[in-house]
Design a protein that fits this description.
Blueprint lengths: L7 E9 L2 E8 L9 E7 L9 E5 L8 E11 L2 E10 L2 E10 L7 E7 L7 E8 L5 E7 L1 H4 L3 E6 L12 E5 L9 E2 L6 E2 L3 E7 L5 E9 L2 E9 L8 E8 L4 E7 L5 E7 L7 E10 L2 E4 L1
Antiparallel strand pairs: 1-2, 2-3, 3-4, 5-6, 6-7, 7-8, 9-10, 10-11, 11-12, 13-14, 15-16, 16-17, 17-18, 19-20, 20-21, 21-22
Length: about 290
């Protein structure tokens, strides 16, 4: 199948052993009851396999709604999926699953969510610092705190649980271009943080991609650590995309080119994964 036939949000591409593996939130079930994730496989970023179920709730998994933003990272020879889940009785949070292969099947690895149980959280991503310490970077949701937060928490070496308390990296309101949004169910207005993703440039800079809203709609933003590490102060720099597309990540293609993938438009059942070629310029990312 072709890219424009794939209805997913929050696209994530794993490049592994000569193939591309595309994960994402199922468009049809993103806002309500859900039971799994799919992966699409390609060798050229153009033609993709039909969806392959890589995780499915067989009735024993604890969550039954809002299966969001699966990311897969290779760590110590295994494939770890970071994904967000929720029930009516629990806060939304990110849990970790594991598989021996990129296409699954993925099985629960962490004991429930790694994010704080009394925080509404989402979109955990994986990061390993220069000393080999594993971290999860995630969003503390604006629906709970008003001004959305991007936070980082150290993980145990086995990725089973958090190893310490979360540290705030930045607020959504720090972006000059931000636009407040209204939440119909709670009636609150605030600033969104979505989809963090960490990228180290060739000159050693550490970037955090993340998404929010501007006058152009859903926006793919970038923050820069002032010391090149997760414990630095993150400063907002020029966004990558401000035309109603976001929750992106960066990957290096098999030919060595860099790509930004994100979903656009940010409209239910119309979301598609897009691939934009990018390059590194002066320690940051620019679209070509």
């Amino acid at each position: 199948m072709k890219r424009n036939e794939i209805n997913i949000r929050d696209p994530f591409v794993l490049v592994d052993e000569g193939k591309y593996y595309l994960f994402g939130t199922r468009g049809a079930t993103c806002w309500g009851p859900a039971n799994g994730f799919d992966v699409y496989v390609s060798e050229d970023l153009d033609s993709w396999s039909d969806p392959i179920v890589c995780f499915e709730n067989d009735g024993s998994f604890w969550a039954d709604q809002n299966y969001w933003a699966p990311e897969v990272h290779v760590y110590n020879g295994k494939y770890y999926m970071f994904a967000s889940f929720k029930t009516d009785k629990t806060c939304r949070g990110t849990a970790i699953l594991v598989s021996d292969t990129p296409v699954g099947p993925y099985k629960p690895h962490s004991d429930g969510c790694v994010t704080p149980c009394d925080w509404e959280c989402l979109d955990g991503t994986f990061y390993v610092d220069k000393n080999g310490n594993p971290y999860m970077v995630f969003c503390h949701e604006w629906v709970q705190v008003g001004d959305g937060e991007v936070c980082a928490v150290k993980l145990t070496k086995d990725l089973k649980k958090a190893d310490g308390v979360p540290r705030l990296l930045f607020h959504a309101s720090e972006a000059e271009w931000k636009k407040s949004v209204h939440h119909k169910r709670t009636g609150i207005d605030g600033y969104v943080t979505d989809g963090p993703f960490m990228w180290r440039t060739q000159n050693g800079n550490l970037l955090c991609l993340w998404a929010s809203f501007s006058e152009g709609g859903y926006t793919e933003a970038v923050a820069l650590s002032d010391n090149g590490e997760i414990d630095g102060n993150f400063m907002q720099i020029d966004p990558l995309f401000m035309d109603d597309g976001g929750h992106g990540m960066v990957f290096k293609a098999l030919d060595g080119k860099l790509y930004l993938t994100l979903h656009s438009p940010n409209t239910h059942l119309e979301e598609r994964p897009f691939f934009h070629e990018i390059t590194e310029v002066n320690g940051t990312l620019k679209r070509l």
